[in-house]
Amino acid sequence: MILTVDVGNTVIVLGAFDGNNLRFVSRVATEIQKTDDQYAIQLSDILSLYHCDTLSFEGAIISCVVPPLSLPIKKSIYKLLGCPVSTVSYKNAAGLDIKIDNPAILGTDMICSAVSAKRKYGTPSIVIDLGTATKISAIGKDGSFLGCSIMPGVGISLNALSSGTAQLPHIGFDDVEKVIGTNTVDSMKSGIIYGTASMLDGMIGRYKAILDENAKAIATGGFSGVIAPYCESKLIYDPNLVLEGLYEIYRNERGI
């Protein structure tokens, strides 16, 4: 099996591939103060929960956008599994041609999602990652990474709204039934959910005008399941896009 690890600013997503079968997906909170031993214990518990033998892993690969955690996570995996551990960078991006000004600064999660989207859905395509930040990436007809847009994520926007005002409460992300809210909570839900969905519809239209009107739009990330149903644009919902991109990069790196 191959362990894939997506270290984000808020959540660490782990997946285990047994051949092409994604055996499990698990999410834990990103905690920058944790040591490699603490992460190793947490990983051991997760593998035990899903009945995975540590000896069955032949390799692991990490995407990390939290630089201080890159080494502790890598050390924790090696301590527990004793297998080679790779780290994604623009240099081992499975042949993805990154055409931004400085490819070295591109988030490795965006590299992974682009690699996976290109393989699964073809080109041109638009990848929308609704995580801590909301990121929209453009994959050109020739399969190259052309660039992206980055904006505050759903959680950041909602926390800023609640924390920066005296009378607006902290709310959850359950369904919103109406665009025009008639109470504080419903009005906030409408603004966050319909507002984000409308922003995405507008950006998808602008991206398609540049790429191609037939470009496919793929939504992934922790908030994608909340927002995608409210978009008027046609979206492909793929929650495991980054994990599958990690696995694709691992296979490419080893010529599998």
Report on this model:
By secondary structure, this protein is α/β, with parallel strands linked by helices. It contains 7 helices and 10 strands. The mean pLDDT is 94. It has helices at 36-49, 67-81, 108-121, 154-163, 184-210, 224-227, 241-253, and strands spanning 2-7, 11-18, 21-29, 59-64, 85-87, 125-130, 133-139, 145-152, 216-220, 236-237. α2 links the parallel β4 and β5 (85-87). It folds into 2 domains: 2-87, 2-Layer Sandwich (Nucleotidyltransferase, domain 5); 94-240, ATPase, nucleotide binding domain (Nucleotidyltransferase, domain 5, 2-Layer Sandwich). The two termini are 13 Å apart. Strands 3-2-1-4-5 form a 5-stranded mixed beta sheet, with helices on both faces. Helix content is 38%, strand content 23%. The longest helix has 27 residues, at 184-210.
Low-confidence stretches: none
Number of strand elements: 10
The CATH superfamily name of the largest domain is: ATPase, nucleotide binding domain
CATH first level of the largest domain: Alpha Beta
Mean residue pLDDT? 94
Topology as a string of helices (H) and strands (E) = EEEHEHEHEEEHHEHEH
Strand order of the largest sheet: 3-2-1-4-5
- In the CATH hierarchy, the third-tier topology of the largest domain is known as Nucleotidyltransferase, domain 5
* Range of helix content: 25-40%
